[in-house]
Amino acid sequence: MLIAMELNNMLPASEVPQHTEGYEGFFHLIDITGTVENTVVNYIIRDHDPDLFNKKKDLLIRIVDHLNLKYGARTVKLIMVDQYYNMKKKIEPVIHIVDLARKALIERGITPKNIPIRGGTDGSRLSYMGLPCPNLFTGGHNFHSKYEFVPIRSMEKAVEVIVKIVELNAFTS
After folding, report:
1. How many other CB atoms are there within 10 angstroms of residue 28's CB atom?
2. Interval 123-138: pLDDT, tens
3. How many helices (H) and strands (E) does the chain have?
4. In angstroms, rounded to a whole number, what is the distance separating the alpha carbons of residues 146 and 166?
5. Other C-beta atoms lying within 10 Å of the C-beta of residue 141
6. What is the distance of C-alpha 102 from the center of its chain?
7. Distance between CA atoms of residues 141 and 148, nearest Å
8. pTM of this structure
9. Mind giving me the DSSP string for 120-138?
């Protein structure tokens, strides 16, 4: 547990979700379980910039290597799985779908706002599987917290926008 705490303390304290915003990347400790003999920590690493994303992953690898030199080989085991990439590179070639969503929002009386979201795993995964999926609003608030909620009126507005996107697309196809 102490080595897990040491690893966490070696990460940049300012690069966590609560101290970053917008397009700033972060290390997000999402789970820690352990005993004196065995501890598992799980992080999400996010960054909109692919180079900065890779630098964050490299930093974690260097920290693990350092801890293994300090405490002995295989004291710390790193399993790193890329689950999420920024979808920008998959959306830009088909930016007309974003324009279509923007038009649908306006027609439903909603002012479009391009706000960088710091998640969007589903949309990203689908985009990288060949189905470009820009993230649209759902009306939710306080995502991934115990205070997350979605007002019924907001969900209704989200459905209206989706229906409008389908209608607009039917006329342009």
Report:
1. 18
2. 888 898 999 988 888 8
3. 6, 2
4. 33
5. 12
6. 22
7. 6
8. 0.77
9. -HHHHHHHHTT--------
